[in-house]
Structures are given as structure tokens and as C-alpha cells.
């Protein structure tokens, strides 16, 4: 909207600052579409992710890409440290077993109370998907590969299953229990995960007694494998 002329320089300057702030906010940082639950995810800000993110991929590793309605999540695969888990995940893609599957569980990081209990616990800070969501889940007894820890951005196979999850915070308590087969290495992928973990969930008891936060509307994905663009001069 154009401003009427004839204002003093002072007020014009103030308006420019205000307008700049609005444009900056809209363009970059203010994820208003995430809604009020954003407040619970302070730990997932772009800034905090950039501080903890893995270094950029350097090994020419293949990527497993999940395309969702919020954008792509690119996972750098780690065949050197987790050969069996990577081979299994790739087989799910190439055999098209992942077709029509979804992310179905989203656990925020902030303090939470499970229904029917009265103690506060930290959220599990993860987004989970796999063949369960399309009725093809299977028992897969791969031995755990422990060369990579469950750091923020690491993607882990749930031992004995065809399900996997993204660590939205570091989970040292799970090191040695799950094979980390890949990692998120770019901010756009991270922001897709932030969108998913902000979606509404309902609580559901797992047979183990764990209360799960299941997405009210699971987020379907398509998968593909992609080799990185060769680095110039290499
Ligand atoms: C994983 O975590 C353990 C315990 O904190 C540490 O000793 C080990 O060096 C870590 N491994 C890697 C590959 O960073």
C-alpha cells in the first residue's frame, strides 16, 4: 500500500523499518502456518539445527529422498558405517514396498503428559514412518550397527522391524539399540520435519506400554534414491 505524501522524514523512516521487519518476518523466520504448537518446538529452530547439523556430505554417498506435501526430506545414506541397514532401506525403495506408505508418528520434544498418567516427561522428539502405515510391516532381524550415534538429524531403523525414525534431538540413550543408516544434512529437509512434528496427534498405547503420539492425518511420502551431483573438478 502506498503511503500518502507529506509526512515528516522521521515518521517515513519508522514506517520503512516497520515494513522491512514485516517483509523479513514473512520471507524468512516467522512460520505462522505451523500454529501455536510452534512454541513447544523451540529446540527445532533453524538456528539451533545449524549449530548441531552434521557437516555437509563429503563422501559422494547416495541419498534416500522422501517426497511429501511439505517438500522433500533428503537423507544421506551411510553404507560404510551401517551396510546392512542401508541395504535393507534401499531394498524397500527398489522393491517399491514403500509405495503408498506414510509418516504416522510425530513426537514433539517439549515436556508432555501421557493420558491417564500424572507425571511430566520429555517428549521423544522423533518423526516415524515405515511399512506399518501401509499394512506391510515385517520382522527383520538385522544385527544393530552402532558406528553412528543417534544425534540430532540422524535417521534410525527400529531394530527387528521395517520402521524408522528421524531423531529431532540427540538420543544418546538409544545408541547401541538402533542402527543409524542416514542423516539429514540440509535445512530444507529439517524444515519439512518441523512441519510434520507440528501436526495434530492423538495418543495411542503401544503393546510395550509406551504411549505414542500418532498423527491424526498421516503424511504420505514417495521415495526414490539419488546419487549426489558430482563436485566440480573431482
Ligand atoms: C557415540 O557416543 C559415545 C558416548 O557418548 C561416544 O563415546 C562415541 O565416541 C560416540 N560415537 C561417535 C561415532 O561419535
TrEMBL record:
The keyword Signal applies. Transmembrane segments: none annotated. The keyword Lyase does not apply. GO terms for molecular function: peptidyl-prolyl cis-trans isomerase activity. It holds the Pfam family Pro_isomerase. Residues 60-218 form the PPIase cyclophilin-type domain. Keywords: Signal. InterPro entries: Cyclophilin-like_dom_sf, Cyclophilin-type_PPIase_dom. Residues 1-32 form the signal peptide. This is PPIase cyclophilin-type domain-containing protein.
Amino acid at each position: 500500500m502506498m503511503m500518502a505524501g507529506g509526512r515528516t522524514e522521521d515518521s517515513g523512516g519508522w514506517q520503512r523499518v516497520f515494513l522491512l521487519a514485516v517483509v523479513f518476518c514473512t520471507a524468512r523466520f516467522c512460520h505462522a502456518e505451523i500454529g501455536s504448537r510452534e512454541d513447544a518446538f523451540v529446540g527445532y529452530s533453524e538456528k539451533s539445527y545449524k549449530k548441531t547439523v552434521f557437516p555437509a556430505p563429503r563422501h559422494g554417498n547416495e541419498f534416500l529422498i522422501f517426497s511429501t506435501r511439505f517438500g522433500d526430506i533428503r537423507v544421506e545414506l551411510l553404507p560404510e558405517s551401517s551396510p546392512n541397514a542401508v541395504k535393507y532401506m534401499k531394498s524397500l525403495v527398489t522393491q517399491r514396498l514403500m509405495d503408498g506408505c506414510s509418516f504416522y508418528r510425530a513426537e514433539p520434544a517439549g515436556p508432555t503428559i501421557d493420558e491417564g498418567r500424572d507425571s511430566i516427561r520429555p517428549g521423544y522428539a522423533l518423526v516415524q514412518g515405515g511399512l506399518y502405515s501401509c499394512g506391510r510391516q515385517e520382522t527383520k532381524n538385522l544385527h544393530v550397527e552402532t558406528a553412528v550415534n543417534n544425534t540430532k538429524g540422524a535417521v534410525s531403523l527400529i531394530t527387528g522391524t521395517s520402521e524408522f525414525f528421524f531423531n529431532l534431538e540427540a538420543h544418546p540413550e538409544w545408541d547401541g539399540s538402533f542402527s543409524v543408516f542416514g542423516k539429514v544434512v540440509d535445512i530444507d529437509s529439517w524444515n519439512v520435519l518441523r512441519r510434520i512434528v507440528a501436526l495434530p496427534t492423538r495418543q495411542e498405547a503401544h503393546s510395550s506400554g509406551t504411549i505414542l503420539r500418532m498423527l491424526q492425518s498421516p503424511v504420505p511420502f514417495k521415495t526414490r534414491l539419488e546419487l549426489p551431483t558430482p563436485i566440480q573438478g573431482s
